[in-house]
Structure formats: C-alpha cells, structure tokens
Specification:
Blueprint: H1 7-22, H2 25-28, H3 43-70, H4 90-97, E1 116-117, E2 123-127, H5 132-137, H6 144-155, E3 164-167, H7 181-198, E4 202-206, H8 208-215, H9 221-224, E5 229-231, E6 234-239, H10 242-247, H11 252-266
Parallel strand pairs: 2-3, 2-4, 4-6
Antiparallel strand pairs: 1-3, 5-6
Length: about 270
C-alpha cells in the first residue's frame, strides 16, 4: 500500500495543512477579519472572583460540618473515602423540633403532637393538624375522628402500631381553625424529614390540607381522591379526612374505595 494511504502519511499531510491553517488570519477570526482581539480580563478581577468563591466554599463547609455534628458525627476520616453519614432518626428530628416556638401556635398549644407508629411503616397517614383531644394527650388522632381512623386501619388488616400517623402541622390551631400558610410552611420541613426517614411505600393524605401540601396543588380533595399521586418517589392516595366523614357519612363509600386501592397496593 502506498505510504500516503497509511496512518503515518496521512498524519504528516494533515499536520502540514493544520499548521498552515492555524497561521491564517481567517482561521483566527473567520467571522470578521478586521475585528480587534478583545481586551483580557484584568487579573485583579479574576482574583477577586476567586476569593469570593473561596469564601462561599468555606461557608458551605462550615454549615456542612455543623449539620454532621447535629446528626451525631464525631470525626471525619483523614484518608480519602466517603464521609460518615449516620442515619437520621425520628427521635433526632423530634429533638431538633424541641419545644418549638417557630410560629404563633406555641402560644396556645398544650402539647406538640409529633406523630407515632412504626418507624419502618409501609403506610403512613398524614392529617392536617391536632384537635383538642390530641392537644391534651400529645398523640395524633385519638378523638372521635381518630377512632374512625383506627377502624379504617383495622378494616384492612392492620393496627395503628404497624402504620405511622402524623399531621402537616404539629400544634393545634386555636378553636380547631384551619391551618394558615405560615404555620404550614414552618412545620412542613419536619414532616418532610419524617417521610424521608420512614420511606413508606404509600402515604394516605387525609383531607384537603394534607393532600394540597404534599402535592403542591390547589385542587380540591374531591378532585384529587380516587387515584395515586407521587411525593418524592412515594405513592400518595388522597382521601377524605375522618372528621369530614363523621359530618358527611354519605361520603364514606367513596373513602372506602380509596382505602381499598391503598390495600391493594400495600399487599403487592
């Protein structure tokens, strides 16, 4: 085969042509031969930007170390490798919540109602807020609505101890009024942590406030119920709140259809 058809010959020809092209003004500025070369960025500006970025990195690192300490991390390895990442627990989230005074509800509550049940539950029930009985006892869903919820749970072959039960907000609003947006915004991060820790297969959102908060929508519960939605990779079935069912018993059949779909998904 002639040398010009081999890799060596072709490479030599290509190199000569490339060198010639690189020296060409057309190559350096094909769009506009008369355009002047842009002024370089002053070195001082570059150094200022680098300094600002360095300060931000150090700040982020400080926040990360503080966060790791809050999770119980006592040391970082000197050798290369993954940093320790202790598993966050519901107990740790509860301690972080503390005797919360982050919103005005602390002024009228008796107890914070954090939630209760199985930390590894496949099914989590999320309501809107504690009522009078819950505020008195410090436990979720223990009044009349809670008794109905317990019967619903038992009807699909489960117990309260096998599921997890909580609310969007952790303190009772005065006179059982609806939760306000600032109260929801304050409490929602703690709910998010609870769900991330439990990682349930299914979340049952009880009522409009629970469903709208989890799904970030303004749709009514009557439009949301009856089908699964998604929250951070977890399936969400909105349905009517037990308190609503006590006032509107004719809606129980629809709620039961939702619960049956939850049960079907649960046993898959």
């Amino acid at each position: 085969m002639p040398k010009s058809e081999t890799g060596t010959g072709a490479s030599s020809i290509f190199s000569r042509k490339t060198e010639s092209l690189m020296k060409s003004k057309d190559y350096r500025n094909p769009a506009n031969k008369n355009q002047e070369t842009p002024e370089p960025v002053p070195l001082t500006n570059s150094m200022d930007n680098a300094k600002d970025q360095f300060i931000r990195v150090i700040g982020d690192l400080k926040h990360y170390v503080a966060y790791q300490r809050s999770l119980g991390t006592e040391f970082f390895p000197r050798s290369p490798g993954k940093l320790p990442h202790p598993r966050l627990t519901l107990g740790a989230v509860r301690r972080e919540l503390g005797e919360c005074k982050r919103c005005k509800l602390h002024l009228t509550r008796r107890h914070i109602v954090f939630g209760e049940g199985n930390e590894k539950a496949t099914l989590v029930f999320v309501g809107e807020a504690p009522g009078e009985d819950e505020d008195r006892q410090g436990r979720p869903f223990v009044g009349k609505a809670g008794q109905l919820l317990t019967r619903i749970i038992n009807a699909i072959g489960l117990t309260r101890e096998e599921v997890y039960i909580t609310n969007i907000i952790k303190c009772r609003p005065p006179r059982n009024r609806n939760p306000q947006q600032d109260e929801i915004a304050t409490c929602e991060p703690f709910l998010g942590q609870q769900l991330e820790i439990i990682q349930p297969k299914i979340i049952c959102a009880l009522g409009s406030f629970a469903a709208q908060t989890l799904l970030k929508t303004a749709e009514k519960i009557s439009q949301l119920r009856g089908r699964f939605h998604e929250y951070r990779g977890m399936k969400v079935m909105p349905t009517y709140h037990p308190a609503f069912l006590l006032r509107n018993p004719h809606k129980k059949r629809e709620a039961w259809e939702d619960i049956k779909k939850i049960h079907e998904e649960y046993i898959k």
